């Protein structure tokens, strides 16, 4: 049955296939369930129409049987009155109604079979619709999740994390270089200051030595001490020699 084939295809539809389509999966599922609901309404109308037809057929059968019985009674009455010809005509009419009742009875049996099948299809369709509604919500949730994952992957492809990390690594390397330069400059400034103080200390030591040398030279040129024939500086030198 084409109706149920379409229902089975919908129930077994793969969400990934729906996502690859240009239509919105949610709209497709909603539309399919709506179509199934419309089919259910039409099937219910068909069942109601079949039941109504069956009732009319039953009424026609009863009427035909009633007329057949009436003409049978008339045939008996005519025969009792001795009118065999009239009784024959009544029996002919009775047979016509009886044949009609038998034909209608055959139609009634066929209609009952159709109604039974339609009711069975109706219950099956109602069950399929209930199942479709339940799975529809699940499929919609899965479709939304898949779409969100797809958008996230597209976003990650657009903003490649490895490229971003490389940019941060390059920035970190530049910062380290700047910090290293600053440290070198700071160390150079401190070393220069130390060198200046060391130079001052050396100059101070040299000045001290120079002063001592000047004092010694000035002592050598002094006059000799009385009665010795030597200067005090010469005497000091001799003393130092001892």
Automatic annotation (TrEMBL):
Residues 26-53, 108-135 form a coiled coil. Keywords: Coiled coil. Residues 220-242 are annotated as: Disordered. PANTHER family: MEMBRANE-ASSOCIATED PROTEIN VIPP1, CHLOROPLASTIC (PTHR31088), PHAGE SHOCK PROTEIN A (PTHR31088:SF6). Belongs to the PspA/Vipp/IM30 family. This is PspA/IM30 family protein.
């Amino acid at each position: 049955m084409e109706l149920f084939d379409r229902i089975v295809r919908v129930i077994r539809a793969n969400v990934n296939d729906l996502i690859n389509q240009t239509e919105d999966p949610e709209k497709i599922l909603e539309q399919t369930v709506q179509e199934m609901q419309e089919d259910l309404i039409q099937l219910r109308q068909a069942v109601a129409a079949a039941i109504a037809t069956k009732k009319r057929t039953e009424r026609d059968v009863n009427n035909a049987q009633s007329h057949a019985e009436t003409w049978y009674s008339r045939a008996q009455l005519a025969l009792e009155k001795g009118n065999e010809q009239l009784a024959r005509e009544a029996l002919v009419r009775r047979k016509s109604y009886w044949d009609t009742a038998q034909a209608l009875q055959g139609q009634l049996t066929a209609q009952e079979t159709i109604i039974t099948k339609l009711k069975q299809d109706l219950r099956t369709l109602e069950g399929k619709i209930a199942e479709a509604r339940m799975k529809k919500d699940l499929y919609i949730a899965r479709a939304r999740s898949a779409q969100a994952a797809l958008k996230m992957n597209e976003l990650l492809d657009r903003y490649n994390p490895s490229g971003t990390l490389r940019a941060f690594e390059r920035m970190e390397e530049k910062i380290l270089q700047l910090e290293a330069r600053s440290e070198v400059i700071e160390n150079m400034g401190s070393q220069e200051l130390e060198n200046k103080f060391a130079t001052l200390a050396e100059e101070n030591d040299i000045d001290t030595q120079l002063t001592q040398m000047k004092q010694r030279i000035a002592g050598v040129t002094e006059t000799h001490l009385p009665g010795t024939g030597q200067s005090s500086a010469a005497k000091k030198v001799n003393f130092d020699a001892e």
